[in-house]
Amino acid sequence: MIGRPKIVALALALLVAASCARDSSSAGGSGGDNGCRPVTVATSPEKLELLTALASEFNRSDAAASAAGEECAQVRVARKSSGAAADLLSEGWPENEANGPQPVIWSPAGSSWGAIVNHRLSVQGMEPFVPADPEPFMLTPLVIAMPRPMAQALGWPDTPIGYSDLLALARDPQGWASKGHPEWGQFKLGKTNPNYSTSALNATIAQYYAATGKQGDLTREDLARPEVEAFNRGVESAVVHYGDITMTFLNNWFRNDRRGTALTYVSAVAVEEKSVIDYNRGNPDGITDPGEEPKPPRVPLVAVYPKEGTLFSDNPLFVLEAPWVEPDEEEAAEKFAEFVRRPEAQRRTLEFGFRPGNPEVSTGAPIELANGVDPKQPQTTLRVPDPPILVEIIERWEQTRRGARVLLVIDVSGSMGEEAGPGQTKLDLAKAAAIEALEQFKAEDEVGLRIFSTDLRQAEPRDYIDLVPIGPVGAQREQIAAKIRDLTPVAGTPLYTVARASFEDMKQSFDPDRINAVVLLTDGRNEDPRNEDVESALRVLRAGSEGTSAAPVRVFTIAYGKDADAGTLRRLAEATDAATYDAADPSTIDNVFTAVISNF
Amino acid sequence: MKRLGSLILAVVLVLGALWIRGRTGGGLLVAGGGLDGRLTCSTELRRACEALSEDHPRLRVKVEPAGVTAEAIAARRGAAPDFDVWLTLQPYGGVARELLGATTDRPVLGTASGALAHSRIGMYVHESRAQTLSTHCQGQMAWGCVLGAISGGQTWDNIGGEETWGPIKPHIDDPAEASALLALGGAAVGLIGENPDGLTIRENADFATALSSLKRARTRSELPASAALARMLAVGPSEIDIVVALTAERDRFGDAASKARLLYPAPVVSAQVVAVPRRNAEVARDLMDALLASRFRETLESTGWDVGSPATGTQNSPSVGAHITLRDMWRELP
User: Cβ distance A536 to A568 under 8 Å?
Assistant: First the structure.
């Protein structure tokens, strides 16, 4: 028997339960793959951590509970550099393991990438699908990061510094001696590749403005003027190497700082303002690894805001109007974009060194002078050129960029014959990727091909063979490709011998007008009983890379497959202030090769 | 019987709970669905109209520049417009009638309401640069001085600012937006004198030069004024340092609005919100009546519009014909 009070109590309980049902269903949408509509965000790397945290909050919120029509939504954040995502979107984002799922939201570092994609789509006769003029999620200006003593030698903070000053210094045969510091050697510029990196794209645009003396309305005629080209060639001639991400420079710089050689590695790097803050906090790549205790550098960086003006990375959240985006996904994406623009979310951008995109949240710490940045700067912003001009700037950069001289060193040891996919060995995949990567070099670049495995021949050097000597790639691209196609797996992996010998050979034939580098791909560990001395190899590489008069040869390494000795490859790369690349999953080797070649 | 009564009460309570849940989840705030019909709003009224749309799901709201609506009305040559009520700012109600009059004798617009709200046209100058502009104009913020200062690629150091500030970077909407057209009207009165007609404006070479310089000098012209103002407040003065916009915009930004100083070049002009119904259509009349009887004025007020005090500066605007001339001149200028 149930008495009346009990029935009323039950009813009240049901009333409460029913009223709360909405909340619990929204909580249910917060977990993993729980039937909610997935909404993929492709974001540039610097805000991966922040957007992932905000996505997690959103997924737990009421806003997500019915974000996709009647369904709940689950936002998933995937990392993709701005330029790589722009390339994929221009091709309709072919969906595969390496590319990841087609995004509903795209957040490159700067909205200029959206204009580039739309332009490329239009050229192909397709409908543009990146919305124009999105609101900024968060902001950070492009700056020239310089070690404080170097900036001071140029008159900072009282004298405004610009690209024209850097060009003058780069062209001065006396280098830093002209500023009273012969111990710093020549002026060296660090700059990423504008095909992939927003800071490089912005820096290249800023260079064109500086070269023309304009602050807007760049024209094709401006770009083609001989003095403009000469200006840009001059700036590019000071570049130590390029690359897809600025973190490579910042990590190397920081490592050099620990060794006391920060002032001879590089003099200035075009980066986003937030990177200066990260660096000065002792966290050069902006990512705090578990257990990492950041220690500030011995020589801090300062942000120079170019006097000719600069550009902002505005980190838009483009809700794509692409053919693969369903209306429910679009609705959910708009809600997420709204969610991250709330003042409470915007305050978190400051923690990561960005300026909030929502004006309701004021810029504050850590954007302050004590961290090497100035919240009152920049005073002048340059206009992002129209898309056809942007595209032409990138195309022209391909010609004005510093030339490269690269030795491709490919492992043909027996393990490269292991299967890596249906009917394909690791070597097959690497060969295809290497041949495709050859297309990224300009005709005047010099490229050679070396293979290595133990006991390739009887006479010394027994462990490696130069299949194609270094020469202009325009004349021997097909020859290199043919040799790569013919490669077959042989024996063991003489890693230390080939790393050292390749480095020394490149140093001997060093060309001061080019970026000199070795690209070393291997899938294994050193398997050479005749040389097991990694420290000796590292000493040679390090000694040849330090000092103001060094002829720097960068050794970029690719750890290919899960058995590669990634730790040693990292050390070899770092000894020459280069970078190592992870291709543990052989199916990613295409993208990895592209990233490696972006250094040239 | 008592048990049955208790059970019925329990069922009613449960149903009540489910009803409450449905209501809060669905977002319906007005019983019965509220306003119905097609409402076209001018861009400056976006926030108020979006709030209306949220409260009245059956109301189909379109937001576009007043000039676009006016031209669409004229282009239909007497056919009924595609809205029941048009919420816009004067002078565009009058501009639409003039343009329509040139194509047909058939009136398609009903009588406009009186002014529902108003807002002055101002100039938001970034706080760090406002004093420089003010000093340059010796405290007399006349359109003549302001236009002279901001037009034609002037740099801040030319008017007493710092060299590093670079060029003056003003933003003004295309005059297809009512507030921008009103600003040009104020500028014309300021430079030429009271009540200039279209011919006088067109024949004044100094004014034409000033207008042309302003058009060339404006920056980020693809952004609407509200977005340009947001951008200036977020980014700082490096990209946009002056925005011509309604006072009503200030409300959106709370404390952040203090990063800009709102100046009113003389003569001050005000934008007035009016509702224009489609003529001879019951649904239009009903919507107009419902709109005016609803809490729309409160919505306008909550989005920054002034509904209390009388509008200032309405007498400073030139005629509808003069505004049409200004719109045409802007288009023709390089």
Answer: no
Closest CA in chain A for residue B21: A19
Bridge-partner residues for A268, per DSSP? Answer: A189
- Which chain B residue lies closest to A159 (C-alpha atoms)? B164
pLDDT classification of B15: cutoffs 50, 70, 90 = low
Q: Is the pLDDT of residue A317 over 50?
A: yes
Cβ-based burial of A16 (10 A; exposed 0-12, middle 13-18, buried ≥19)? exposed
Specify the residue for token string 């919420």: B87
Q: Is the pLDDT of residue A30 over 50?
A: no
Assess whether pLDDT exceeds 70 at residue B16: no
Q: What span, in angstroms and rounded, lies between the C-alpha atoms of A242 and A231?
A: 18
Q: What is the pLDDT confidence band of residue A340, given thresholds at 50, 70 and 90?
A: very high
Categorize the per-residue pLDDT at B20 as very low, low, confident or very high, splitting at 50, 70 and 90. very low
- Which stretch of DSSP H or E encloses residue B99? helix B92-101
Confidence category of residue A8, pLDDT binned at 50, 70, 90: very low
Between A143 and A13, name the one with better pLDDT.
A143
* Residue B52, phi-psi category: left (phi > 0), alpha (psi -120 to 50), beta (remainder): alpha
Residue given tokens 């997690």 in the structure block = A56
| Integer Cα distance of B93 and B96 in angstroms | 5
Task: Specify the CATH superfamily of domain A28-109+316-353.
Answer: Periplasmic binding protein-like II (3.40.190.10)
Question: Of 3.90.25.10, 3.40.50.10320, 3.40.190.10, 3.50.50.60, which CATH number belongs to B31-118+271-302?
Answer: 3.40.190.10
CA distance A542 to chain B (A): 43
Q: Which residue of A has its CA nearest to B16?
A: A15
Chain B contact probe: residue of A4, A14, A19, A380 with most B CBs at under 10 A:
A380
Most A CBs within 10 A among B13, B129, B171, hence the mutation to make, goes to B13
The share of chain B scoring above pLDDT 90, in percent, equals 66
Per CATH, the number for A139-314+376-395 is 3.40.190.10
Structure tokens at A434: 């290497």
Of A12, A307, A361, the CB nearest to B13: A12
**If pLDDT is split at 50, 70 and 90, which confidence band does B4 have?**
low
Question: What share of chain A in percent tops pLDDT 90?
Answer: 81
Phi/psi at A511 (nearest 5 deg)? -115, 110
Residues in B lying within 8 Å of A, measured between beta carbons = 2-3, 6-7, 9-11, 13-14, 16-18, 20-21, 24-25, 128, 162, 164-167, 219-220, 222-223, 227, 230-231, 233-239, 253-256, 259
CATH architecture of A402-597: 3-Layer(aba) Sandwich (3.40)
Given this model, what pLDDT does residue B9 score?
Answer: 63
Residue A16: the pLDDT is 38
Where are chain A's structural domains?
A: 28-109+316-353, 139-314+376-395, 402-597
Rounded to a whole number of angstroms, the distance from the CA of A354 to the nearest CA of chain B is: 11
pTM of the model: 0.81
> Which residues from chain A sit within 8 angstroms of residue B236, using beta carbons?
376, 378
Residue B291 pLDDT level (bands cut at 50, 70, 90) = confident
CA dist., res. B17 & res. B14, Å (int): 5
Q: Average pLDDT in the A567-572 region?
A: 97
Distance CA B54, CA B39 (A): 13
Distances (CA, A) of A374 to A189, A215, A364, B325: 22, 22, 10, 46
Residue written as tokens 């980020």?
A: B220
pLDDT for A52: 96
Residues of A with CB under 8 A from a CB of B: 2, 4, 7-8, 10-12, 14-16, 18-19, 21-22, 66, 132-133, 135-136, 139, 141, 160, 215-216, 307, 309-310, 312, 355-362, 376-381, 383
